[in-house]
Write a structure and sequence with these properties.
Layout: H1 2-16, H2 23-27, H3 30-63, H4 69-81, H5 84-95, H6 100-107, H7 116-140, H8 144-152, H9 157-185, H10 189-194, H11 205-215, H12 217-237, H13 239-243
Helix pairs in contact: 3-7, 3-9, 4-7, 5-6, 7-9, 8-9, 11-12
């Protein structure tokens, strides 16, 4: 009960400060609407990238004995414990104008800092571990002998994964997708450090929340409630798959 109260009371405190009469007007603020649109687009794209990159990595970690496996796990978990600002600084040193990756991108006429693409990279960096760890755990829960049976029936390794392992692990994969999307949506430190805060280009809802709090508590509460509703809404929409993990 103490743990639940510790988790629930801050949310209740936030909701108790919402002015229902002023909420519609504040939600129509162009600054909030632009940030909401940008956040939804970038967090969705970064989640897709997390799936494309993370599911194969999770399968390797769950099924293969590869060299430096412990180092691989450390690298996956590192963004979870690394302060987001430090993560953003790392990205800036790599993909900034003076970084190896940055010079390579500039030679191709591309750049990441202060761009929407930079926001997506920052969000993917911090969200990827959530999907990898959830998916790895789900794949580990699938009996490897079922893949062996599929192989005896003529299925290739890819077919066994796609038709046997992945469907059975899907609840865990969906949980990882939800966690990754929510983490990307709420990302602040790495984004502001790597991509900056440019209205309409890199200023997502968490960055608008930071700015709104400097102007007035009421404005900050409105943006905070929007983030809360979006995160909770996704969990509720996927509740059947989410709760099936319990």
């Amino acid at each position: 009960m103490l743990a639940l109260a510790f988790l629930a009371l801050p949310v209740v405190a936030l909701l108790s400060k919402v002015s229902l009469s002023e909420l519609p007007e504040r939600l129509r603020d162009p600054l909030v609407l632009d940030a909401l649109r940008l956040s939804l687009v970038t967090s969705t794209i970064s989640t897709v990238l997390c799936v494309l990159l993370g599911v194969p990595l999770a399968w390797v970690m769950a099924r293969k004995e590869v060299p430096l496996r412990r180092l691989m796990r450390v690298l996956v978990v590192l963004p979870l414990v690394l302060p987001p600002v430090a993560g953003g600084l790392s990205l800036l040193l790599l993909f900034g104008p003076d970084g190896v990756g940055g010079r390579l991108l500039e030679s191709l006429g591309l750049g990441l800092p202060a761009t929407t693409a930079g926001v997506i990279v920052a969000q993917t960096f911090v969200a990827l571990p959530f999907l990898v760890l959830a998916t790895e755990g789900a794949i580990r829960s699938v009996d490897p002998r079922m893949e062996g049976v599929a192989a005896t029936l003529g299925a290739s390794q890819w077919q066994a994964f796609r038709r046997v392992t992945l469907p059975l692990a899907m609840p865990g994969v969906v949980a990882g997708v939800v966690l990754a999307w929510a983490r990307a949506l709420g990302e602040f430190g790495a984004t502001v450090t790597f991509a900056g805060s440019v209205p309409g280009r890199t200023e997502t809802l968490p960055l608008v929340l930071s700015r709104a709090l400097k102007e007035s508590t009421a404005a900050g509460v409105t943006v905070g409630v929007v983030l809360l509703v979006l995160s909770a809404g996704v969990l509720l929409l996927l509740r059947d798959r989410w709760w099936s993990l319990s």
